[in-house]
Design brief:
By secondary structure, the protein is mainly alpha-helical. The chain has a single domain (6-263), classed as Rhopdopsin 7-helix transmembrane proteins (Up-down Bundle). 70% of the residues lie in helices and 1% in strands. It has helices spanning 6-33, 40-64, 76-111, 115-138, 161-190, 197-207, 210-229, 233-236, 238-256, 261-290, 303-317, 332-338, 353-356; strands at 143-144, 157-158. It has a two-stranded antiparallel ribbon with strand order 1-2. Helix 3 runs parallel beside helix 9 (238-256) and helix 5 packs antiparallel against helix 6 (197-207). It comes from Lasiosphaeria miniovina. Residues 329-341 have a biased composition (Low complexity). It holds the Pfam family Fung_rhodopsin. It is found in: Membrane.
Length: 361
Amino acid sequence: MEETNGPRIVISLSVMTGVSLLLMLLRFFCKARYGKRFGWDDHLLSASWLCLVTYSALTIVAVNYGIGRRKALIPPGNLVVALELLYIGRFFGIIALAISKSSFAVTLLHLARGPWQRAVIWTILVSLNLVMWVCGFSLFFQCTPVQKAWNLDAPGSCWDSRVQVNIGIGAGAYSAAMDFILAIFPTVLIWHLQMGTREKVGVVVAMSLGVFAGITAIVKSYFITGTARSSDFTFSSADLLIWSASETAVTIMAASIPFLRLIAKEVSGKTQQRSAARYTKNLTAATATARPKAPESDGYDSEKDSLDGVLKEEHRATIRIAYRTGPDTNSSTNTSANTMPMPMPMPMPMPTPMARYPNVI
């Protein structure tokens, strides 16, 4: 089976383009749902994604013409078309980088308060665009005529390959440095705002994800050197093509994720409300269960009725016992005279309610 990097290129570019689109759309959804105004940072982010999808589409078409395969196995006609598509795609990839980082810088401008903060951000914004646009347009000036860049058999001349490599590495290093600065800068801008410490930390972490874009820029610069040194660049350029798209995709993701905290806060608030309602319901049920039960009825409707009943029972239990002191003569007079009333026994003390229900406190 032929060894090729084509499928890896296609899958990687498709996934990164799709995920970055998803997060960008979620950013727009959050801003629309919570009444946040759309600004230049949103328009720039959309433009950068369009450049990214153009780069990915041209690169995927170039794969169909042989990019990712061994150079010796690619027909000459297909190779010319593939390299032309790559050169045009690389231009859009570089411009996508410049615009995506500009979008994040514009977002930071909304948070800047002091003059020096705005000056730093504007310096990064202008210098980064200058470097990246020069790097992008240099692709079309390295050969005379320009067709010589993708048609190796065409007459003409080109710069030394090391010049273009150095331009690419220099632009990548500067891009990485700006990514790290932009990732650290939110700490300076946000820490003085009237927010809770926990919320500040969350926002700073979310807005500092651009550090990963800086890491991808470093990795991409490493593969620029490796691809330039390879004699089979159509096969070995796979990593460079993938990491070039990764830098832009990660930048778009890093610029979109901070706005997703609006959804996270709403979901968290609803979860806390449900938890509080559940806690209140359980507490009410537990209180009702722990409430002492009413004593079983003893046939009386009140404590007074109970007292009267006890006394009546005592009266019914009172008897007279006659003792005969002499022989029975069946004489009514003798019986009356000799009959002695027995003293009524002392009534038993009625238990108090506490004594009757000792477990009720």
